[in-house]
Each structure stands twice: as C-alpha cells, then as structure tokens.
C-alpha cells in the first residue's frame, strides 16, 4: 500500500530487445518476463531483473492512458500509444521488491488491467503485480506438507448477521487430535479478510516454517476488521467497540468451539498490519485477559504506561519497513525493554508500507510465538 510516483521510460528501441534508458539515464535491462500475478496466458504486465515494471494496454480509441501504482492510485506511469492502438510504458525507476496494487486510468476513468489478477485493496478489487524478491523463497510454493485454508461463517448477534473469516490450520491438523494455539491476524485499511492469505501468502509462510521445524504449529484466523467505512485519513473517527465485540465476544468463542484450540490467553496472539495494528494495539490494551502476545506490523507502538498489567504480556513484537522511519519502533522498544517487557523488533530492509514488509514481519514473528 505504498504511494509511488512513476513516469514513462519506454523508448522505441525496446521493441527490438535492446537495453533502454530510464529518466535518470540508468540502463534498463531488456530481460522482462510476465509477472507471477498475471491472468493465465497473459504476457503483460512484465517485470525485469532490476525491478522495473512494463505495461501494455489495448485501448485504441483512448487519448490518455496511465498506470497508477500504490495506495490511492496517485501519480503513475504514462503510457505511449503505438501504431496498432496499444499503449506501452515502463516505470521510471525500479519498484520495491514484493507485491503492489495498481490500476489503469484511461481518459480519466479508473479500470483494472485485464492482464493481471485482482486483489482487494484501497477499498476495491485492484490489479496486482509482483516484483521478484531476493528472499522470496520463504513464501514460495514448495513440495512440503500444506495446511488448509477454509472459509467459515460465524454468527454475529451484535451486527445481526453472519460474518466471514478465513482459518489456516497446520498440515497435521486434519489427521490428529492435538490442540493448537491461535494467532488472530488483521489486515490494513482498504483491505479485507482475504488479504493475508492472497497478498501475504501467510499460509505458505507457515507451511515452509513448519516443514523446516522452525515454529510451533498454530492456527491463523483472518476476519474483516470493519475499517473501510472510515475514509482514508479519518482514523481518528474509527470506533473500536463494534469490531472488538465481534472479535472477542463472537469470533473467538466460535473458533474455540469449532476448532481444536488451546483456549487460554498464553496460547492466543493478536497481530495486525497498519490500521490492523491500531486495532491490535487498542484491543490488547482493552482486553489483557484475552491475548498473551501482541504484534504491530507497521502499526504503531506501545508505551510502557499504557499496559496496566505487565505480567499478562508474554511478548511484544514491533516491525516496520526501513523506509517507514523505523527509529520510532526502535525507540519504543528500548523504553518497553527498560520497563521489563519482553520486546522484539524487526526492520525490513529496502521496503516501505507494503506487503513485502509484512510478509517478512510474519516470517520473523511466527517462530517467537507460543514458546
């Protein structure tokens, strides 16, 4: 969910497979390949080994086509019209590694790229593109035992509805009788309960860590945080009470009744990215008897004086991207440690407010839980 302002760097010679030059006079290697997030059999969008993205849109009657990347879709890559009516363009600079939302602006209208798969972000289903990461192996689909991700519908009297959640159970769950700890893992503003498994690959991260013997297997639960009714920038107007009731009084009892869980505070964690971190911060402070592990992923910090019962907290985890002013979490962690809290920090190198930061954060967090 990062705001990235990009311009065109496409030159005519790219069609012949030679090296082009970006707006800063850097060589752009012509080793572009289709993005892993493309629709089946679609060549564009493409990415190269340096992290540049290239787009091709068929819009022969259009006067202007621009690809907008990042939360809110501001700025973008201006495409140039070819003789055959297609529009082509390459980002001015390399993009950060990992997943990015984007949309296509054609003559002022916002559309999705027909070549890319769609992901829920920025309060709408947006196109997605994946920039290959040097460390992508930890969330790769491998030949290891896989857990199960299932959709559940749970009753919610407080909202007079049935609500949806996704539940990840570890590979051995279906064949055994063991009970498991649970992590309640929240999405950010503009997203929903599909984000962590689709964009975040949380299930693959867990499968690989379990196969490597690096974590205690646990269940993950994702549900909608009721955040998107608040417009971007209006976080001060968000009221936690409705979602807190859904989570603590309705969802958790349902999970404990319908799955084999270790239904105690010390075997229950809450974490969230961005606005989901704000929810985690508030609910864990309001309900210290419910969760033993707290994790804020680009989602703020805790102050020692906010936490009324230190003995209730097993661990606090704070993370951010290196482009998100990580000194804030590092300073907060020092104060928490000095006050006697078990606090761990993680900074994702060369990423900002985006899913590569949060994938890496979950990868670092998971081995620390439920020890």
UniProtKB/TrEMBL annotation:
GO MF terms held by the record: hydrolase activity
UniProt keywords, alphabetically: Hydrolase, Signal
Pfam families linked to this entry: Esterase
Signal peptide per UniProt: 1-23
The UniProt record lists the keyword Oxidoreductase: no
Protein name (Swiss-Prot/TrEMBL): Alpha/beta hydrolase
